[in-house]
Amino acid sequence: xxxxxxxxxxxxxxIYESFAAAQHAAEFTANYRxxxxxxxxxxLRKLEILDGGLYQLSNSLEAMFAGQVIARLSQTSEFYLNxxxxxxxxxxxxLSGISTRTTAISYDWDAGIAASSNNDESWSIxxxxxxxxxLSHQFALRLRIQRGETENLEFELIDEDxxxxxxxxxxxxxxxxxxxxxxxxxxxxLLQTESSQRTTKIWLADDWQYLLIxxxxxxxxxLHIKLELxxxxxxxxxxxxxxx
Length: 244
Hints:
Oligomer: single chain
Low-confidence stretches: 1-23
Largest sheet: 15 strands, antiparallel
Strand content: over 45%
Shape: globular
């Protein structure tokens, strides 16, 4: 990490120590089951705190058919947190099996440039404050909800050679039935863009630092994708349902 950026993060942590403590993100491990029009998969999502206060968020998935693994997907995003924002450092995506794809992003905040690549293509993208990647912005959404922000939920993301905007809308509160039992949740919708014809809804756990509980996605072709929480541990505590 560049000395200037490291010094800036230390400065924020010292000056805003009391506020930053409220924004500290606890480590978690969560297991999910996934399905896509009957095709089953298992998924694992983890947040770990590495040396130097670097956060690593990882997401992995294995798709099965007839008892055989037909596809594996892994995503990893590393970032720092200060009292105001998430500062991404790197992003990696790997899909293998019946289809292959490799994506990577390396952020150089001192130079103001991100190196982005997809398979054999690569680009240099001018960085702007607040820009993230597909995985880190999902975590940033949780942080903003924890701060009580429910409007203007917009995130700029690097997508290959350009920067796109993801916008979310609050749909409301819901007591959601899950494999674990009933959980208090907040539901959001990812607003469609001109290039996307999919509807996406997500549910976050109110009592567990807004851990992801469920995702439902459907496109115009009829493809229906669902991801549902099976079990999780947040800050060393097992996620438990509401008492009856």
